[in-house]
Design a protein that fits this description.
Number of helices: 17
Organism: Sinanaerobacter chloroacetimidivorans
InterPro entries: Amidohydro_3, Metal-dep_hydrolase_composite, Metal_Hydrolase, YtcJ-like
Structural class: alpha/beta
Helix content: 25-40%
Strand order of the largest sheet: 8-16-17-18-19-20-21-22
Number of strands: 27
Strand content: 15-25%
Distance between the termini: 37 Å
Protein name: Amidohydrolase
Oligomer: single chain
GO molecular function: hydrolase activity, acting on carbon-nitrogen (but not peptide) bonds
Pfam family, one: Amidohydro_3
């Protein structure tokens, strides 16, 4: 590729440039022309292609890195969150609500401001952490807001407590009505509704909550700012509020209001039937993954196999260590999974599915193996979202198929102590980054925000240190990796999983100028100080979209 070097528009010098090229070279300087990287090398050689019009940024030993790529993020859902009663989704995380009493106070405030019949939507509490160490009850919700449907989601997003008004939206008025839905998904105890609804039935009930276009646009733009502040220049959107959200995100990206590049999975938060309809409509038109432009592309056809890690509600081969009688959630059967994978594979699409526990992951791997018997497509780079609990056999099989898992190490920082209790010895293969890298798997990093922390340094810290940052307890260290390896997963591997490694994910000539400046040399800082590193600058397409401070203020 040939470039006009006379002269570069923006130049970075005196830095620790983490190139993430084939040799993991560390360079000093980078030159930008338009929206492309045209030079990577030494300070001395950079001087030959700058002039008086070049903006020169002296890094002063700080890190210049490829922009981070979050391969499983929900821009609209995460942006819905707010700490007060006016938010589209009221944040009930521990920092905002330390007790059920705090949650109920917010519900009462919201009910006082909203007309009767309008939904009150909440998310974030963890019954393992709040003062009462239990779930909120249907009776408490009914008393706090008798005239409003209330949705109070656990932090994982897979378990939710609804009040009576909300349950009526799907025809559930008494315990017997739970039998209309999947086993164990509407929880009944002692012959009475508890208000607890899990996974697929919860997602279906969630579809009854109304979020306006104005709320969705505001949420997306809130996420836009959060992403830029964290050096995230691309996101793989793992699902929002169905058709309105697809349209909104496409428009915001096209108008260049939402700055990070968007790889939009075909998936709705509103459950299995809605997501299947979306995928079937896409396939019926003869379309394939990858349609779009540099800023917005249609990504995988996604579906959801099981529950979550922290409820816990994922589908595991062996019972949970802390409670052998606790059921996992399995929304798809083994053969059903294999048949659907074959259908999508034969249609030429990239496939991904939410599969957390080792039983759900086994369904996915086995399904890919069967599909490849008649139509091998390792170049499809099929995915598994979350891919939390595995073993060496599953890893070896994924490597042969070129499956690209998207993992969420940041979950450890919130829930590591609970995972140790839930999964016991299986923690040796929980978020198994070390073993996946060693097997040659292109695993990428993702936040799954709002279900997990979206801060980039939290993800990197979790990769390297594997520590519960609520208690500072270390979690099994078997799968710990180096900071340079973690950055590769967060950049190049993310680009690879959306077929874009030729244009982004590393600092090499010809690639998009999607770059970030970190506050120090992250390769040299102490491991326990990774969380303290800041993003000083975020550049997308050669344009500085975020600066933590003005150069003159430094």
């Amino acid at each position: 590729m040939n470039f006009d070097f006379s002269y570069v528009d923006i130049a970075f010098k005196n830095g620790k440039v983490i190139t993430i090229n084939g040799n993991d070279d560390i360079e000093q300087a980078v030159g930008i022309k338009g929206n492309r990287i045209v030079f990577v090398g030494s300070n001395e050689d950079l001087e030959k292609i700058v002039d008086d019009t070049t903006r020169i940024i002296d890094l002063g030993g700080r890190t210049l890195s490829p922009g981070f790529i979050d391969t499983h993020y929900h821009p609209i859902l995460n942006g819905f969150f707010g700490n007060n009663e006016d938010a589209a989704i009221i944040n009930t995380g521990y920092a905002n609500c330390k007790s059920i009493k705090d949650i109920l106070a917010l519900i009462k405030k919201a009910a006082a401001k909203r007309p009767a019949g309008q939904w009150i939507s909440m998310m974030g509490y963890d019954q393992n952490r709040i003062e009462e160490k239990r779930h909120i009850t249907i009776q408490e919700l009914d008393e706090a807001a008798p005239d409003h449907p209330v949705q109070c989601m656990r932090t994982c997003g897979h378990v939710c407590i609804y009040n009576s008004k909300a349950l009526e939206a799907i025809g559930v008025k008494e315990a017997a009505d739970a039998l209309k839905y999947a086993k164990d998904e509407i929880v009944v105890e002692h012959g009475k509704l508890t208000g607890m609804v899990k996974d697929h039935t919860h997602f279906y009930l969630w579809s009854k909550v109304v979020y306006t276009e104005e709320q969705q646009i505001k949420a997306a733009m809130k996420s836009n700012q959060l992403l830029l502040e964290n050096g995230i220049t691309s996101v793989h959107d793992a699902g929002e509020c169905d058709a309105p959200s697809y349209k909104i995100m496409q428009r915001l990206c096209r108008e260049r209001k939402f700055k990070p590049r968007e790889y939009m999975m075909l998936h709705s938060i509103f459950g299995k039937p809605v997501s299947l309809t979306d995928n079937d409509h896409f396939l019926a038109l003869g379309l394939q993954s990858g349609i779009g432009d540099a800023h917005f592309k249609i990504g995988t056809c996604k579906f959801m196999i099981d529950g979550g890690t922290s409820g816990p509600s994922c589908a595991t081969r062996e019972p949970y260590s802390h409670d052998p009688d606790m059921p996992g959630i399995l929304g798809w059967e083994r053969e059903e999974t294999a048949e659907y994978i074959k259908k999508l594979n034969d249609a030429g699409c990239q496939i991904s599915a939410h599969a957390v526990g080792d039983l759900a992951i086994e369904f996915m791997v086995e399904g890919y193996e069967k599909a490849f018997l008649t139509n091998p497509r390792p170049e499809a780079r099929h995915r598994i979202e979350h891919c939390a609990i595995v073993d060496q056999d599953l890893i070896d099989r994924m490597a042969k198929l070129n499956i690209c898992p998207s993992c969420n190490p940041g979950f450890l920082s919130w829930n590591g102590r609970n995972y140790t209790k839930f999964y016991g010895d299986r923690m040796k293969f929980f978020m198994a980054l070390r073993s996946m890298i060693d097997a040659g798997i292109k695993v990428s990093l993702a936040s799954d925000a709002p279900s997990g922390p979206m801060e980039s340094m939290t993800l990197l810290d979790s990769c390297v240190n594997r520590c519960d940052r609520v208690t500072d307890e270390p979690v099994d260290q078997t799968q710990a990796i180096s900071i340079l390896e973690a950055i590769r997963l967060y950049t190049y591997n993310g680009a690879y999983s959306s077929y874009e490694e030729d244009v982004k994910g590393s600092i090499e000539t010809g690639k998009y100028a999607d770059l970030i400046v970190l506050s120090e040399d992250i390769l040299s800082c102490r491991k326990d100080k990774i969380r303290d590193v800041k993003v000083d600058m975020t550049m997308i397409d050669g344009v500085i979209e975020y600066e933590r401070f003005n150069p003159e203020d430094k």
